[in-house]
Amino acid sequence: MKSKNKLLDFADTLCNFIALNVVFLITCLPIFTIGTAITSLYYVMMKESRGEYGYLVRPYLSAFKENFVKSTRVFLIMSILTLIFSFNLIFWFSMQTLMGNVLAMIFFIGLTLILGTSLYVFPLLSQFENTVIQTIKNALGICFANLKSSGLLLIITLFVFFLGYFSGPIRILLILFGFAFTAYVKSFILEKVFSQYH
Questions:
Q1: Residue at 72 is within a domain
Q2: 50 DSSP 8-state letter
Q3: Residue-range definition of the domain harbouring residue 181
Q4: Which position among 30, 71, 117, 174 has the lowest Cβ density within 10 Å, counted as fewest Cβ atoms?
Q5: Domain-embedded: residue 127
Q6: What confidence tens digit (pLDDT) does each residue in 125-172 have?
Q7: Looking at residue 55, what is its pLDDT?
Q8: Is there a domain that residue 1 lies in?
Q9: How many separate domains does the chain show?
Q10: What is the residue-wise DSSP string for 119-184?
Q11: Is 141 among the domain residues?
């Protein structure tokens, strides 16, 4: 519950975001847990965007435990597909032949579809109960059905990525609270999209 003191509310929220961000980064360290960490981050941030205020770290850890198996499977599937398509894209493009360029374009389109799917697949896991394959199919379908929202989510993601890559101060902010805040901003868009499917 929010108090009447906006300054205290802001300080409390900032501390919560920093704590959540640190826990998120720690739980990403084994690498294969990244999918579960992202799913859990969206779970708490989407609750926050709906005004269901409260502690963030405790529900995050609870969601992490609950979503571990399914989110890990999705992360591994998406990672393997990304590696296969990326390798083939580079390989066929390097051939510098007509057939190679055609195949490279096909794998580029495939990578684009994977990217579009990744915008929604982990938030979907955090909000809906479904099989792994069906969740991936739903994420791809939602991406195409909501192109404006998908474009906005992609722009936010790329904007944060490039800022973090090229700017040292932004990297520090990302380590402090940036990942949690980015997920929070994107959660408002995701809530609007997902409200069509409840």
A1: yes
A2: T
A3: 6-194
A4: 30
A5: yes
A6: 999 999 999 999 999 999 999 999 999 999 999 999 998 888 888 889
A7: 85
A8: no
A9: 1
A10: HHHHHHHHH----HHHHHHHHHHHHHHTHHHHHHHHHHHHHHHHHHHH-HHHHHHIIIIIHHHHHH
A11: yes
